[in-house]
């Protein structure tokens, strides 16, 4: 998208005024007009790891969504302030697991007599409350780039995993990477009493998957994969693991946003790719690699942007940077101490995974 030259100049000037006091992080799904101002770009794992890279920065401006900004606050110093340029930039998947629902689920597992054998593994795309629940019950956080190692670790601690909140990442990792069968997985529906499962089903399952999903990635279908293969002979289909199981099973490669970028960097000239992830990133990659003769298309033209990622636009970024440069702290994301303590435990378990 063309950036307004006046706003670009204002963002540049405000960033210059702030100097080392500000550190701007940008997720790969951000708009071009915003990502150009990021000091570091990455997938959710890289951004969590790098959030603490500049302890001297008073402000961390997070161009991404709410759960990422919360994680940055948890992992950075108490005197560092994390700012989200638009507070409405949430994540519909993260909203699919609330603290009350997860506490109720734990009661259900306790009644079924299995809670002490269950290790929670929560996707980064969850609220700080869910991360704290995970830490309190001996579990770990994972992202799409380390879900396999997180699950392996969890199965060394217990014999069952409660995977929150993305059923697809949980199922795809269990089946594709750990060699489990679909029958080893059950789906816990937080809107039904007992999760819609019998105690026997819970006792038999290895993976208890929370019924959450990403509304963007959930729209890629097996048909999208078949169509693109028919349209572009020799195409490599590369999708994000938040896609549905049948899509992942039909793809050639699966990985996080950072993985997708690395795979395309390493791809030979003349290769053809259909990418199943958010549109801002796919467009940027198509433009970047076209001069090298790599043909990159969007896996399904009916799937659109992540609307909440897109809420961070240049006007919001300019407003945030100018406010901070004027000494006005706006849109701070701050996790309370008690939540932070346990959420940090779970995040640190992830960062320590081999
Ligand atoms: P990555 O960790 O792969 O960047 O994914 C984050 C995300 O929100 C995908 O929808
Ligand atoms: Fe959440 Fe999906 Fe958007 Fe990622 S793409 S931030 S999972 S809604």
From TrEMBL:
Binds 1 [4Fe-4S] cluster per subunit. It is an enzyme of class 2 (transferase). [4Fe-4S] cluster binds at residues 91, 214, 306. It is found in: Cytoplasm. InterPro entries: NadA, NadA_sf, Quinolinate_synth_A_type3. Iminosuccinate binds at residues 27, 44, 123-125, 144, 240-242, 257. Its cofactor is [4Fe-4S] cluster. Gene3D superfamilies: NadA-like. It holds the Pfam family NadA. It comes from the Bacteria. Its main location: cytoplasm. One of its GO terms (molecular function) is transferase activity. It catalyses: iminosuccinate + dihydroxyacetone phosphate = quinolinate + phosphate + 2 H2O + H(+). Its EC number is 2.5.1.72. Pathway: Cofactor biosynthesis; NAD(+) biosynthesis; quinolinate from iminoaspartate: step 1/1. Keywords: 4Fe-4S, Cytoplasm, Iron, Iron-sulfur, Metal-binding, Pyridine nucleotide biosynthesis, Transferase. Belongs to the quinolinate synthase family. Type 3 subfamily. Catalyzes the condensation of iminoaspartate with dihydroxyacetone phosphate to form quinolinate. NCBIfam families: nadA, PRK09375.2-2, PRK09375.2-4. This is Quinolinate synthase.
